[in-house]
Amino acid sequence: MTLQLNQVTIGNILTRTSGYLQTVSSHSVQPYCGCTFGRSLCGVGCYVRHNGHLLRGRSWGEFLDVRVNAAESYQTHYERERNWAHRQRGTFSLFCSSSTDPFLPQEKKWQITRSLLLAMQEQPPDELILQTHSPSVLDVIEILISLNTRCRLRVHLSIETDRDRIPGLPPPAASVQARLNTCKKLRSAGIRTVVTVAPLLPIESPHRFFEQIADVADAVVIDHFIQGDGSDDGSRTLRTQLPMKMAAVDPSSITLAYRDQMVAVAQQYLPGRVGVNIDGFAGRMLP
Q: Which of 74, 108, 210, 261 is most open to solvent, judged by the fewest CB atoms within 10 Å of its CB?
C-alpha cells in the first residue's frame, strides 16, 4: 500500500465541539487528518472511515494530511477560543484527538503533536485530554510532566481487549502488554492515566484484564460500538466487518448486555473509577 502524504495548513486547529463530544470538551484538536493506524485493528470499525467530509473520496488508512502549521494556528486562535469557551462552556478544554491518533508513526518525523504540546505549555488550556493507541506517547512524557502542572491533564490509552488478535482481523497498532506498560510509566510520572476499552471487543479473561488495568491506571472507560460510534444503534459499525468477527469469538459481545457485564467486573477492581460511554470520556465515573 502506498501512503498518500500531504503537507497542509489549517485555518483554526481549535474546533468547537458539537454532538458526541460536546459534553466532553469545548474543543477538539487534530494534529493530523487521516490515520496510518487505519489498517490495524482499531481502524476496522473506526467511525471516521465513513466520514465523507474528511475522506473526500479517499480510503481510510491510505492517506495522511500533516497539518504543518498546527502549533502556530493554536497560538493565533488561543485567546479568542479560550474566551469563547469560558463564556459558552465554562471551561477551555481540549480533546486531542477524536479522529486521528496524535502519535502515529509519522509523528517521529513531523512532530506536529509535540509542537502543539509545547505551544500549550506557553498558552495552556484549562484541561487537556490526550487520546491515543500508541506507546509513542512516552516520547513526550517530559513535556506532559511539565504540562501537568499547568492544566488538568488526562492521558487516555485505548486497550480494546486483552487479546492481541481477533481471528480474521488485523493486529492492533501495539500489543496489549506494551500499552499496559505505557500506562504504568505515565501513572508513575504523576499523570492521570485512563484506559479506554473502546470499542469493547471480546475479552478472554475479564477478571484478569481489569485487575491488570487497576494496577496501572487511575480509571477505565468502557464503550461499546452500540451508542459509542456516534449512532444510537451502532449502525456505523454494523457497516463494517467488526461485529461479525466479534460474534464469531463471542456472540454476546455485540450486545449492550455484554458491555454491562464487563462494567460489573471492572467495578470490582476499580470501584468509583469506571466510566461508561460518553460520560466516561468526560471523566464522569459511576458511583
A: 108
Q: What is the pLDDT of residue 119?
A: 98
Nearest to 184 by CA among 242, 137, 128, 224: 137
155 phi, psi to nearest 5 deg = -105, 125
* CA 209 to chain CA centroid, nearest Å: 19
pTM of the predicted structure, to 2 decimals: 0.94
